[in-house]
Amino acid sequence: MVIPRYIPSLMAALVLAVFTSVPQHVAAETYPTFTIDLDQSEISVTTASCASNCGVAGSFSQSGEVDVNFSGNGDVVALSNLIQWTMAAPAAVFGGIYNVTLDLFFSAPDEQASSTKGGGLFWSFLGIVSGGTVAWIDAYQTVSFDQGSDIGVWLEKGSAFSFGKTVTSDVYLVAENLVPLDAPAPTPVPPLLPVLALALGGLFYWGKRQKPALSV
Predict the structure, then answer these.
(1) What's 191's DSSP letter?
(2) Engineered SS bond to 83: which of 63, 89, 94, 169, CB 3.0-4.6 Å?
(3) Can you tell me where the transmembrane regions are (predicted)?
């Protein structure tokens, strides 16, 4: 049996067609995890002007580390009610102006920190109803990491109101410039290509064996 000469060319074209038609999967970029260590972060409150029996304490609504992941530049992650403002003397009727400082410590992808100051006006009615507003000097700050990524720390600026002796504020993290951790993985070779290559090689070999000998 003699294999027609056009068969190897046809098989080669088929291999090329399969290779170009198989979707080329590009690995998704992996961005770093940004971790805020709340145990090393701090909120401080000092009295600027206040009547008697007043006072406010600033704290975080949780402890330990908070991991934040972004899927791409421009993403915003809300850390709702992260900051708590607690009226220290809820049994009184008071209102006061306070100086506040927020220090956020990032432990990953490398150690960085963000510090913001502002002024707060808080009030409470017997601890039954409380409210407050914070005006940050820099409500938005950019934190640059040695890894290469930049994220924004955006602090809620406005009034809060609640029943009880505690009001809360939100913190938002914004992906300004994310640098991938790893380069995209090489495109995988379609599993059908090795089989076609073997088939093509077999046809060449078979054609060579079936070639008729030249007569003398």
Answers:
(1) T
(2) 169
(3) 82-106, 118-137, 189-207
Averaged pLDDT, 72-96: 83
- Half-sphere exposure for 114 (CA within 13 Å, toward CB): 25
192 membership: H or E segment, kind and range: helix 192-210
- Span 165-176, pLDDT tens digits: 889 999 999 999
Alpha-carbon distance values, 41 to 36, 45, 133, 180, 199 (Å): 8, 14, 21, 26, 65
Supply φ then ψ for residue 23, to 5 degrees: -55, 135
pTM above 0.90, yes or no: no
Q: How far is it, in rounded angstroms, from Cα 91 to Cα 110? A: 44
Contact yes or no for 97/119 (Cβ under 8 A): yes
CA distances from 109 to 30, 50, 59, 96, 102 (A): 13, 41, 24, 39, 21
- Angstrom distance (rounded) from CA 111 to CA 57: 27
Is residue 137 classed as helix, strand or coil in its secondary structure? coil
Answer for the pair 60, 169: CB distance below 8 angstroms, yes or no.
no
